[in-house]
Specification:
The chain has helices at residues 14-39, 43-52, 56-69, 72-88, 101-110, 116-121, 128-141, 147-152, 159-172, 175-178. By secondary structure, it is mainly α. The longest helix is centred in the N-terminal third of the chain and has 26 residues, at 14-39.
C-alpha cells in the first residue's frame, strides 16, 4: 500500500539540448529588445524613466544600460533619484534598498574616482548588503583619496563590515590609507 511506481527516466538528452538552445535564443532576443528599448534615450532620460518606473526589473535594466554605455552622469542622476526616493520612502513604499545595489556595482565597475562622492551619499542605506557593496565598489575604484571615507566604515558595529573596510584600506597600498 502507498507504494509509488515511477517509470525510469529516459536518458535521451535531445529534448534538454533543444530546450537549452530555445532558451538561449529567447534570452538573446530579450536582451536585444531591452537594449533597443533604451537605445533612443540619453542618460538623463533613462534616469527619469528609472524614477517613473514601479518595476524593479525595469530599473535594473536601466542601470545595466547606463553601465553598458559607461554613462557616469546618467548613473549619478539615477543614484540621486534613489536617494531622493529613500528620503521620501515611508511605510508601504515600493522602493527597496536592493534597487541601489546594481547602481553601486555599476559605479564600481566604471572605476571613476569622481563617483566616490556619489557613493558616499549612499551610506544613508544602512543595510549590511549595501555597506559591503559600497566597500567593494570603493575597492574597485581604488582611489587612495577615499581612504578617509573607507575608514569611516571601521566604526560600524558589524564585524564583517569593519573587516572588509580594513581589507579595502589595505588594497589601496598608499600612505594615505595607513593614516
Amino acid at each position: 500500500y502507498g507504494a509509488i511506481y515511477m517509470k525510469p527516466m529516459r536518458t535521451n538528452s535531445r529534448p534538454t539540448g533543444i530546450f537549452l538552445v530555445i532558451s538561449l535564443l529567447i534570452l538573446n532576443s530579450c536582451i536585444a529588445y531591452t537594449n533597443s528599448t533604451f537605445e533612443k534615450y540619453d542618460g538623463n532620460e533613462l534616469a527619469d524613466r528609472w524614477l517613473s518606473s514601479n518595476s524593479p526589473q525595469t530599473r535594473k535594466s536601466i542601470v545595466y544600460e547606463l553601465e553598458r554605455r559607461e554613462d557616469i552622469n546618467g548613473l549619478v542622476s539615477t543614484v540621486e533619484y534613489a536617494i531622493e526616493r529613500q528620503h521620501r520612502a515611508g511605510r508601504g513604499s515600493n522602493f527597496s534598498y536592493k534597487e541601489v545595489l546594481p547602481m553601486i556595482h555599476a559605479l564600481g565597475k566604471l572605476k571613476n574616482p569622481d563617483t566616490v562622492a556619489t557613493l558616499y551619499k549612499l551610506t544613508i542605506f544602512s543595510q549590511k548588503e549595501v555597506q559591503l557593496a559600497l566597500l567593494e565598489a570603493l575597492k574597485q575604484i581604488n582611489d587612495p583619496n577615499s581612504a578617509h571615507f573607507v575608514a569611516g566604515f571601521y566604526k560600524n558595529p558589524d564585524r564583517d563590515i569593519r573587516l572588509h573596510a580594513l581589507a579595502v584600506l589595505g588594497a589601496f597600498k598608499s600612505p594615505q590609507s595607513i593614516d
